[in-house]
Q: What sequence folds into this?
């Protein structure tokens, strides 16, 4: 899987992964991070998720990273705001009040570019990456965020029935990547109504990661 895969998905509007509502798991479990209003939350591989709208409306500051410029343009359009766009080396920065989104390869987003963050909300990043990329991603994520606490959402299903993304990420896989740095707490694990594609049974799990 490469960048062209995601660019094609956005260009062809093949974005079934984009939810048409705020993720109820975010609303239910964000309090576990004990974030005060005004804190800055990082969303890796954020797309144009409505979760950003919700976080902003609840007085949090948001920073995202997204490969697709089209997705970010649509995000700001749907928010009804005009971003300031600046070049930051290999990535672009779209900014407005309380919101910054870096457009480009997340591995080109450094700690210096990102700036301080108080928490990570990973709904769509780890599950979007094939196994051979996850170790690099999780290491990079911890480096650029100074190991900020995470609210991590994963899916579990029989990977032989669907190629992914989203990929199946078990608790063992979460532990493999993060146990050396974080204390892991399973907050929730629920069946996805109808599963994937209406035929593949799947579970959604929510993890709290704290140093």
A:
């Amino acid at each position: 899987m490469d960048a062209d895969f995601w660019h094609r998905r956005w260009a062809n509007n093949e974005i079934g992964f984009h939810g048409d509502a705020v993720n109820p798991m975010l609303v239910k479990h964000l309090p576990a991070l004990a974030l005060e209003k005004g804190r800055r939350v990082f969303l890796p591989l954020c797309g144009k998720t409505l979760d950003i709208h919700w976080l902003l409306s609840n007085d949090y500051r948001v920073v995202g990273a997204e490969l697709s410029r089209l997705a970010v343009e649509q995000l700001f359009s749907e928010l009804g705001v005009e971003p300031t766009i600046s070049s930051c080396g290999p990535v672009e920065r779209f900014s407005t009040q309380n919101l910054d989104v870096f457009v480009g390869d997340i591995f080109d987003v450094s700690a210096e570019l990102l700036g301080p963050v108080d928490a990570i909300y990973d709904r769509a990043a780890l599950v979007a990456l094939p196994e051979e990329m996850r170790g690099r991603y999780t290491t990079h994520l911890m480096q650029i965020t100074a190991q900020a606490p995470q609210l991590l959402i994963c899916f579990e299903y029989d990977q032989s029935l669907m190629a992914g993304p989203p990929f199946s990420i078990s608790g063992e896989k979460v532990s493999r990547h993060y146990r050396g740095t974080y204390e892991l707490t399973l907050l929730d694990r629920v069946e996805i109504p109808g599963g994937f594609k209406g035929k593949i049974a799947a579970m959604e799990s929510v993890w709290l990661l704290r140093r």
Remarks:
- The radius of gyration is 16 Å.
- Residues 33 and 149 are 7 Å apart (CA to CA).
